[in-house]
Specification:
The complex is a heterodimer. Chain A is of the alpha/beta class. Chain A is 41% helix and 22% strand. Chain A is built from twelve helices and ten strands. Chain A has helices spanning 47-54, 79-85, 102-112, 117-130, 135-138, 147-159, 177-194, 205-211, 229-234, 236-241, 248-258, 270-283, and strands at 2-13, 21-32, 36-41, 62-67, 70-71, 86-89, 165-169, 197-201, 214-219, 222-227. Chain B is mainly α. In chain B, strands 1-2 form a two-stranded antiparallel sheet. In chain B, a hairpin with a 2-residue loop joins strand 1 (93-97) and strand 2. The radius of gyration of chain B is 23 Å and the shape is flat. Classes of the chains: A alpha/beta, B mainly alpha. At the A-B interface, helix 2 and helix 3 of A face helix 8 and helix 9 of B. The complex binds adenosine-5'-triphosphate (ATP) and magnesium ion. Adenosine-5'-triphosphate is lined by residues 13-14, 21, 23, 41, 43-49, 91 of chain A. The site of adenosine-5'-triphosphate has 13 residues of chain A, from strand 2 and helix 1.
Chain lengths: 287, 267
């Protein structure tokens, strides 16, 4: 059964005023457990609005959101439990830090869950390690950290709740390439270790192609498609028209195809491309 | 919940009221307030009401919005009317029970006060609904400019007001965002005991303060980078101009004021 499901989900900001804006329009989607979903779409296409429905921060204007087959709004009192099960890391999450020390800030979510001190301590330490924060940083004030460290602390704050579904809204925006790769591979690690479902909102096709098992494309408030990376990048023409791009390597191979190279597969990671080219060369006896 | 705050909220439009010179609108609002407060009788209130309704209709602001502006003061209205109802003892008694005595004067006064306050709020809200905050501060700066002669820092005051108003929506948005982020970490803002609720405000206030202070610093730097040095020698991109429509509108409001003074004199 799908862990997350939406039925005709629609959300309108400032309904009834002249600023009215439908940011999510009639979205039907089913996300299977354990999937790593890349969420892409141009600026303002409704990605952030969509993902805020999954943990009940926004209440649908119409339609339903189902977690494990149960409408999350069925019982309003349960919404807090939903939020512990579906962890959401916001776009620019560093602005949510408030405690005296990084340790206490990461512990904030688990403490709200009512866990024991020993459990909290072990969670804080292991998630801090997982996002690459050393022990001495844990005792510092979050306001003294660098931007990248703040970002890690904020992500750890959500990870420490051990959510079943982890949603990250552009966790790497504004980070250096090294920090970006590190955070993403840590998220991937966590995904593999815990088997949780991950939704990663991102503007970088390379990142999405590298990690995602499924891709969700939003276009002008509507769901454009939800499919495997292969199937999505096959529609590269349409994706270009939306103002999005496909991974560079896909573009290279698209052009090669047009020039008459015999390529059947959809290529979207460099690793796979290298393999393919090597095989080809081997066949011709040049490698 | 912050979306319910309507005071100071601009409702864009292109009606005749929107297009009036903001300076005239401020003066007219002041005249309107004076009219309401010197009015002693029901007739004078009716005059004020007619003026207010006329302005609302002309502005094409939905009635729903006007009612919304009254929502925050409902409690004040109720208390005012109850106080007047129970504590005015003179006049014809209508209802008596033990120490409670409600008189005709009490009822009249309480209705009178409620209508007066409601009109006051509706009228002033109309000013902010139909005038963008920037226009409003421009107008205040222009109206206060005679005070420059006595070295009163009119420009600085107007600039501070502009900035404050400019950042109201930003702060609201930011509060919303921080609230969502903390809710995602399990902050319970709706239920719980009073102490829990007070405690749950901390994770919202602190990041908000931190970012407000940071923002203020950044804004100051950005202004300095563009050589801002206060009001001396600065010109305006939009200079305020008034036309016949503004004068006619002003005359109408003066006419209502005069009518109320006349009614008062006849009493
Ligand atoms: N709080 C809000 N009030 C009113 N409109 C909003 C609000 N938040 C977003 N919108 C509007 O809803 C639409 C979708 O916004 P959303 O933040 O979901 O986009 P996004 O896909 O996450 O974009 P980005 O890639 O820039 O983060 C936009 O047109 C935006 O202007
Ligand atoms: Mg977004």
């Amino acid at each position: 059964m799908a862990i997350l499901k939406t039925e005709q989900l629609t959300y309108t900001y400032s309904q009834g005023s002249p600023f009215e804006k439908t940011a999510v329009d009639n979205v039907d989607i089913e996300i299977e457990e354990g999937e790593f979903v890349g969420v892409i779409g141009h600026t303002g296409s409704g990605k952030s609005t969509l993902v805020q429905h999954f943990n009940g921060l926004l209440r649908p204007t119409s339609g339903r959101v189902l977690l494990d087959g149960k409408d999350i709004w069925e019982d309003k009192k349960n919404i807090r439990t939903v939020r512990f099960r579906v962890g959401l890391v916001f776009q620019y999450p560093e602005y949510q830090l408030f405690e005296e020390t990084v340790y206490r800030d990461i512990a904030f979510g688990p403490r709200n869950m009512g866990l024991s001190d020993a459990e909290i301590d072990s969670r804080v330490r292991s998630t801090a390690m997982a996002v690459g924060l050393s022990d001495d940083i844990l005792e510092r004030s979050p306001f003294e950290l660098s931007g990248g460290q703040k970002r890690r602390a904020a992500i750890a704050g959500v990870l420490a709740m051990y959510p079943q579904v982890l949603i990250l809204d552009e966790p790497t925006a504004g980070l250096d390439p090294k920090g970006r790769d590190m955070i993403l591979s840590q998220i991937e690690d966590y995904h593999k270790r815990s088997g949780c479902t991950v939704l990663l909102v991102s503007h970088s096709m390379e990142d999405v192609a590298k990690f995602a098992t499924k891709i969700l494309v939003m276009n002008e408030s509507r769901l454009f498609c939800y499919d495997t990376p292969q199937a999505v990048f096959k529609r590269s023409e349409e994706i270009y028209d939306m103002g999005l791009s496909v991974p560079q390597i896909t573009r290279v191979f698209d052009i090669m195809k047009k020039r008459g190279f015999d390529i059947h597969d959809e290529i979207y990671t460099v690793k796979y491309a290298v393999e393919l080219v090597a095989n080809e060369l081997r066949k011709k006896g040049r490698l | 919940m912050f979306r319910d705050i309507t005071l100071g909220q601009y409702f864009p439009g292109n009606s005749i009221v929107h297009r009036l010179d903001p300076r005239f609108k401020i003066i007219m609002t002041v005249i309107f307030i004076v009219t309401l407060f010197i009015g002693q009788s029901a007739v004078s209130l009716e005059l004020g009401g007619v003026f207010c309704v006329m302005a609302i209709v002309l502005s094409r602001i939905p009635w729903k919005l006007i009612l919304k502006s009254l929502k925050p003061i409902v409690l004040i209205l109720v208390i005012t009317s109850l106080l007047n109802l129970f504590f005015i003892k003179d006049g014809l008694p209508v209802f008596e029970w033990r120490f409670i005595k409600i008189t005709e004067t009490g009822i009249n006064t309480s209705v009178f006060m409620v209508v007066r306050i409601a009109l006051l709020i509706a009228g002033t809200s109309l000013l902010t609904y139909t005038t963008s905050p920037i226009m409003l501060t421009d107008a205040i700066e222009s109206l206060l400019s005679p005070l420059k002669a006595v070295r009163f820092p009119v420009h600085d005051l107007a600039m501070m007001m502009t900035i404050a108003l400019r950042f109201v929506p930003t702060l609201i948005e930011e509060t919303d965002k921080i609230m969502s982020a903390q809710k995602a970490r399990g902050v319970d803002l709706d239920g719980g005991k009073i102490m829990d609720r007070i405690r749950s405000v901390v994770p919202i206030i602190i990041p908000l303060f931190v970012s407000a202070v940071r923002r203020a610093g950044e804004l100051a730097t950005a202004m300095e980078c563009r050589c801002y040095r206060g009001g001396v020698g600065r010109t305006k991109m939009r200079s305020l101009k008034f036309g016949p429509a503004d004068i006619i509108a002003l005359l109408i409001s003066i006419y209502f004021l005069a009518a109320v003074i006349f009614v008062n004199a006849k009493l």
